Amino acid sequence: MPHALEICIEDLDRPEPATSEEDERYIRCVALSGDEPGLALDREGVVRWMPEGPADRLYGLWVSDDQRLVLLRGEHVGPVIVERGGRQVQAPPGKPVILMDQDLLRFDERRLRVHLHGETEEIFEPEPVRGAGRAARGAGPRSGAERSAQHEIARAAAAAVALGAMVGLGGTGSAGADTMGAPTPIEVRARPPRVAPPQRAVNCSITGMKPGAQGLVVSASCPDGVTLTVGMFGQIVDPQSGAVLEHGMVKVQSVKGKKVVCQATHLKQAVKATSVRFHVRRY
């Protein structure tokens, strides 16, 4: 099974913040293998995580079996152009386009730069890069080694400050150029990745929360007929809005009948919430 890839998506048309330490110009996120629901872009190029809408109206970002980052355009979503150096390809619906570090995605009114940082065992929902705006304004780095980049040095350093030292992709072609220095041709494959089967959202009622050694431990009770497995990911739901709670991703640690115990690694203290949402196969 392929490993998840940590990436950063840079919105080239979003202004840099004047004061905020969180720069939404840079979105830090994780792409999963094609048989897991996860990362996507909507028709406007906005980053989505485990979206509940139909997959054929999204651009999926997957990891292929050979550990490559894949852009998969849905059948009923508008065009997107992948640009690398002087080369351009309009992604065809239903056919995977292999992305490399520094590739540019062009939508109608938005340009996104893709930064590949390497394999990761940590799964988290997309989040703005902390410290990026600070570094872009000339402040010193907070911690970690700076990562060199092939485009504007100041902007790349801003993302590197927050992300820290990342492992390069080596043989996966992250440099985006062949041995002669020319841009690597943009690869379009005939077969799509293993797309996850249709999903439905279910809410499990939270029965307890307590701080743990590696994050908040969340216990919950699920409805009859819902089968969860160890390793599945879910999200704590805000009781007021019904939206996913920021940093509220959980991973199932144990299952006993309808009772599940999860861990939220990005939360340290109990939060005001009554349910955790999972996406399960729709039969």
Which keywords apply here?
mainly beta; twelve-stranded mixed sheet; Elongation Factor Tu (Ef-tu), domain 3; Tumour Suppressor Smad4; 2 domains; 2 helices; six-stranded antiparallel beta barrel; 283 residues
Describe it for me?
There is one protein chain. The chain is mainly β and about 280 residues long. The chain has two domains: about 5-170, Tumour Suppressor Smad4, CATH 2.60.200; about 200-280, Elongation Factor Tu (Ef-tu), domain 3 (Beta Barrel), CATH 2.40.30. Helix content is about 5%, strand content about 40%. It contains two helices and 18 strands. Strands 1, 2, 3, 4, 5, 6, 7, 8, 9, 10, 11 and 12 form a twelve-stranded mixed beta sheet that branches. It has a six-stranded antiparallel beta barrel with strand order 13-14-17-16-15-18. The longest helix is centred in the middle third of the chain and has 11 residues, at about 155-165. It is globular and about 55 Å long.
